[in-house]
Amino acid sequence: NEGKLWGGRFAGCPSPELEALSRSTHFDWRLALYDIAGSHAHAKALGAAGLLSADEENELHRGLDVLTDAFTSGRLQPSESDEDVHGALERLLIEEVGPDVGGKLRAGRSRNDQIATLFRSYLLDHARVVAALVLDLVDALAGQAQAHHGAIMPGRTHLQHAQPVLLSHHLLAHAWALLRDVDRLGDWRDRVRSDSPYGSGALAGQSLGLDPELVATELGFTGSSANSIDGTASRDFVAEFAFVCAQIGVDVSRLAEEIIVWATREFDFVTLHDSWSTGSSIMPQKKNPDIAELARGKAGRLVGNLAGLLTTLKALPLAYNRDLQEDKEPVFDSLDTLEVLLPAFTGQVATLTYNTERMAELAPQGFSLATDIAEWLVREGTPFRIAHELAGACVRAAEAKGTDLDGLTDEEFASISPALTPQVRLVLTAQGSVESRDGRGGTSPRRVLEQLAELRSVATVG
Ligand code: ARG
């Protein structure tokens, strides 16, 4: 059992089958620098507690720096016999500084508090990366909104024509949802950052007089775990992170679905840029929205990672159980997925060309100005219940005549109700309709400009 972290009480070696099952270095090696940072901090705590001489502590820091350099240059690799990143790094450190000093580092810590801490550190760093990528997408949406400010499109509910809206308003709706995801990452960060589990030991804490707050501060946390059992057993920070990744995937997927539909010949709202779309191996004419489709597909994968993780956690007794090792791959996958997907998706969004003429032409169609008739009647003194009935009667009459609402004559309006005077025509344009929706959050050009400024003022990594 040489080289094992736990050889003492075993007479025989672990079977190769057990080793193969147990090994996690193929996925946890990416945590190596975080484990080394934890070791530096832990060495300081051991020194401060009088458990290492100044020379010993310095020698450990030196050895750890050698490992850092070797890792950074790609020379440091785990061996077949290493179970996990922690064991591999301890073996490599001992090779560098010798067993007398190297063998002192493990005092007062367990892989259980180690992994719980360094997985937090790793995710804290990547939360910033993801937040910045989401903000790039928000920025691309804001840029398109600004470039097309004033363009009118059919607003839909149930995918049916509902009311005309500004294209900029619609694009910013996606941006606000994504900004909330950035906010969620910020909330998550504040919670995780205040809870460094180092010092929890295996589950019960440590007896060596180590200062968990010292380690926490060294690692950039604002505080240490109040409960050592919770510190080593909880993984809600992983699940919550996976949720935010999944929500980002879902928000991106909703926009992706629209881009796919908008790019169809039937809609013809957008043209994809050549560099951000793909062709077909057999049909020479094809131009496909693959980025949007991959985004939609990967949302399923992100949701799956969250569901798998929650299923692993469900019904696990306290404290640490080896099942918890299954927390890493799904979240690594979610991060890898987003870190590849978001730059491509942002590029596609930023380079879309909008067919604003066609959007404007379709905006008033499908009786989408019926609500404007009803609200005009209300402004003229008709109770809304009656106004709704009368506007509905206008739709029925126009449908029977085979025209849109503005195809009805003054006489036809008057025959529906004397309240429908020729002035009603003032609201029978898409332009008039959007301009009239001038309350905060509404689609009037003035309000959307205000909204764009508001969005830009809050769209930063907090
Ligand atoms: N590699 C493990 C994990 O990721 C940490 C090791 C804890 N192992 C143990 N036998 N207590 O959860």
Automatic annotation (TrEMBL):
SUPFAM superfamilies: L-aspartase-like (SSF48557)
GO molecular function: argininosuccinate lyase activity
A Pfam family matched in the record: ASL_C2
Keyword Transcription: no
Pathway where it operates: Amino-acid biosynthesis; L-arginine biosynthesis; L-arginine from L-ornithine and carbamoyl phosphate: step 3/3
Gene3D superfamilies: Fumarase/aspartase (C-terminal domain), Fumarase/aspartase (Central domain), Fumarase/aspartase (N-terminal domain)
Domain Fumarate lyase N-terminal stretches: 14-304
Keywords: Amino-acid biosynthesis, Arginine biosynthesis, Cytoplasm, Lyase
Residue ranges of domain Argininosuccinate lyase C-terminal in the record: 367-435
Top-level lineage group: Bacteria
Cell compartments where the protein resides: Cytoplasm
EC number of the protein: 4.3.2.1
GO BP of this protein: L-arginine biosynthetic process via ornithine
Keyword Membrane: no
Catalytic activity reported: 2-(N(omega)-L-arginino)succinate = fumarate + L-arginine
Family (UniProt): Belongs to the lyase 1 family. Argininosuccinate lyase subfamily.
Entry-linked NCBIfam families: argH (TIGR00838)
Annotated HAMAP family: Arg_succ_lyase
Protein name: Argininosuccinate lyase
Organism, scientific name: Nocardioides currus
Primary gene name: argH
